[in-house]
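Let's practice the habit of predicting before peeking. Look at the sequence and jot down your guess about where helices and strands might fall. Then scroll down.
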Amino acid sequence: MSLPDLATSAAMELAQGAAAISAADFRILTEVIASARKIVVYGCGREGLMMRALAMRLYHLGCDVHVQGDMSCPPIGRGDLLFVSSGPGKLATVNALIAQARGAGAKVACITAEPDGPDARAADVRMVIPVQTMARDQTAPSSILPMGSVFEGTMFLAFELLVLTLRDRLQQGSEDMRARHTNME
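Done guessing? Here is the structure:
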């Protein structure tokens, strides 16, 4: 397959994955993020990188956002949100963090491909991306992309759409966002 054909196929998979997200789940997640006092994000591996990318944009939108595991991550409690990624639906670290956050009184949101997994079931809010993850890449591969790449790439696209929606909801313009961008590059 040629590079243009590969690019088109991969981009189509990501677009189809994002288009398959429930509009109701997307709206609910938008509102939960917009109303959170403080947001802490977490994900494992490449999913964690996508969560970090989202954290950066949420910061640009003026949200009080942190990445779990960073030295500067504060405690969370009532009025706060733990937003986790659990593509395969069951990750020990994610499950432990959900229990900790719930015990502290925080809300929990989970992005996943497995809505019936224990991590998604333990969350208050779920956004499902119904695509292949590493949990299903060997039994019935449905993507030209390897392993969990289609899930991770669709996360990035979905998060960009979430940022666009939140930008309007929070009444933040491009200049507001740019003013919060680091000057230490």
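How did you do? Residues 44 and 170 are 28 Å apart (CA to CA).
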